[in-house]
Amino acid sequence: MKKLVKPFVLLLLSVSMAFAAPKPQSFKVGMYNVHDSHLLKVFVEKKRGESMLVELKNKDGQTVVTKYLDKKSSKAALCFDLEDLEAGNYSMEISNKNEVFVKEINLVDMKKIEVEKKIIL
């Protein structure tokens, strides 16, 4: 019985690694959301002379926002305002001619609630 466990664990580990999204080799991506806002900051570091496409897609695969990175720069900082989008699942696709980087984004509804403040003396 112990002999069967080890091959099964190795098989499970190799299958999970096969489905993991590989990191792109020719460019670097960093992204974060600004606290208490609907802003998403995306940073891309790439080679000069290479154009890139940055797309935000909804769950149906339709492109919501498209931004292009020109060949002249090696670094880019993009800001996406997500306030007008509905809550749900989206994907950020950053691609050049050879590679595609995909990051899943779950957008939740952020409703502002005004609280009445009272000062009692």
Description:
By secondary structure, the protein is mainly β. It has one domain (22-107): Sandwich (Immunoglobulin-like), CATH 2.60.40.1930. It is built from 1 helix and 7 strands. It has a 4-stranded antiparallel β-sheet with strand order 4-3-6-7, with no helix packed on it. It has a 3-stranded antiparallel β-sheet with strand order 1-2-5, with no helix packed on it. It is elongated. The chain starts with a helix and ends in a 14-residue tail after the last strand. The model is unreliable at 1-20 (pLDDT under 50).
Beta strand %: 35-45%
According to CATH, the fold-level topology is: Immunoglobulin-like
N-to-C SSE string, H for helix and E for strand: HEEEEEEE
**CATH class annotation:** Mainly Beta
Percentage of residues in helical conformation: 10-25%
Shape: elongated
**How would you describe the oligomerization state of the chains in this entry?**
single chain
Mean of pLDDT: 78
Overall structural domain count: 1
Query: Which architecture name does CATH use?
Result: Sandwich
Structural class of the secondary elements? Answer: mainly beta
- List segments where confidence is low: pLDDT < 50 over at least 5 consecutive residues: 1-20
